[in-house]
Design brief:
CATH topology: Double Stranded RNA Binding Domain
Distance between the termini: 13 Å
Largest sheet: 4 strands, antiparallel
Oligomer: single chain
Structural class: alpha+beta
Number of strands: 4
Strand order of the largest sheet: 3-2-1-4
Number of helices: 2
CATH class: Alpha Beta
Radius of gyration: 14 Å
Shape: globular
CATH architecture: 2-Layer Sandwich
Helix content: 25-40%
């Protein structure tokens, strides 16, 4: 099974991007570039889900495909002029079904 979640890539004032995922509370990672941040986000997501499964906890359902455009509209509304805003992307992970 595949799960897809919306990730927030927020520009870090000290450089790079801080990455969070609202559907996976406590997941936070960082990357020096957007490519590295994506790679770190995928790795963090897979590790997070693996721990949920190992602990017998439920893996959250996927975010709706409309989540990313909605987050983008919200960020655009809240963003101060000329301020760097977050980037929203959906990433997917293959989930092994629990036996």
């Amino acid at each position: 099974m595949t799960r897809t979640y919306t990730f927030v890539f927020d520009p870090d004032p000290e450089g790079g991007f801080v990455v969070t995922c609202p559907a996976l509370p406590g997941l936070v990672t960082h990357g020096a570039t957007i490519e590295e941040a994506r790679m770190m986000a995928r790795d963090a997501m897979e590790g997070y889900i693996e721990v949920l499964i190992e602990d017998g906890e439920e893996v959250p359902e996927s975010d709706a495909p409309q989540a990313t455009p909605r987050f983008d509209r919200l960020a655009h509304t809240l963003r101060a002029e000329k301020a760097a805003g977050p980037i929203f992307e959906q990433l997917s992970a293959q989930i092994a079904t629990a036996v």
